[in-house]
Amino acid sequence: DAKTTQPTSMDCAEGRAANLPCNHSTISGNEYVYWYRQIHSQGPQYIIHGLKNNETNEMASLIITEDRKSSTLILPHATLRDTAVYYCIVRVARQNTDKLIFGTGTRLQVFP
Amino acid sequence: DVKVTQSSRYLVKRTGEKVFLECVQDMDHENMFWYRQDPGLGLRLIYFSYDVKMKEKGDIPEGYSVSREKKERFSLILESASTNQTSMYLCASSFPVGGYTFGSGTRLTVV
């Protein structure tokens, strides 16, 4: 199963872009990259996902390298409410298996 | 607003008790999941279901069973609770493609 590697923690000033990197060098060709975040004592919240192409939604942008071995989540204008643990995840979905493989995540602290 | 609802936010049970954790989703999702989250270990999959009455073991099924009699409901059962099952339990649902939606979690303490 593919695994992801993320920095343990990052800081970002409010109003600036937060760029969260992730390595997933063992990802397979048909496995999607997902990003979730978790605020203390709540369930993980879906942010965005992608396979090969860059993706954007109302929350964030996802940039995936051409070789698919790494990706970056971009929060374009971080706010204090974006302080959370961010997980870069590979979804493994094949016969009789469907799961998200969570790593240890990046603790993002947004400061005023 | 789409939702995954877990019946209890906090539970305290005694060792040896049979424990039921209930999860309901209102999105008509085919897939439903039970994970547990422990410090330093992240989220680990216990069981998942891709259809009514269908279930598959995840990475740590020992000591647990599940039931899915209706599409919207997925129950996790601890047949005989033990202290090492003290954890945060998270239910999720999804279509076969797309994001999972997680519930708020049930923090179970077994004493």
Would you summarize the structure shown here?
The complex is a heterodimer of chains A (112) and B (111). Chain A is mostly beta strands. Chain A has strands at 9-13, 18-23, 32-38, 45-50, 55-56, 61-64, 70-75, 84-94, 97-102, 106-111.
Describe the structure.
- The complex is a heterodimer of chains A (112) and B (111).
- Chain A is mostly beta strands.
- Chain A has no helices and ten strands.
- The radius of gyration of chain A is 14 Å and the shape is globular.
- The termini of chain A are far apart.
- Chain B is an all-beta fold and 111 residues long.
- Chains A and B meet through β4 and β9 of A and β5, β9 and β10 of B.
Relevant terms:
heterodimer; A: 112 residues; mainly beta; six-stranded mixed sheet; four-stranded antiparallel sheet; 0% helix; B: 111 residues
Sum up the overall morphology of chain A in one term: globular
- What order do the helices and strands of chain B follow? EEEEEEEEEEE
Indicate the proportion of strand residues of chain A: over 45%
Number of strands of chain A: 10
Distance between the termini of chain B: 36 Å
Cα-to-Cα separation, first versus last residue of chain A:
39 Å
The main pleated sheet of chain B reads as: 7 strands, mixed
Round the mean pLDDT of chain A to the nearest integer and report it: 91
- Oligomeric organization of the protein chains: heterodimer
Major sheet summary line of chain A: 6 strands, mixed
- Counting DSSP H or I runs of 4 or more residues, the number of helices of chain A is 0
Briefly note the structural class of the backbone of chain B: mainly beta
Shape of chain B: globular
- The whole-angstrom Rg of chain A is 14 Å
Q: Strand-residue fraction of chain B?
A: over 45%
Helix content of chain A: under 10%
> What is the number of helices of chain B?
0
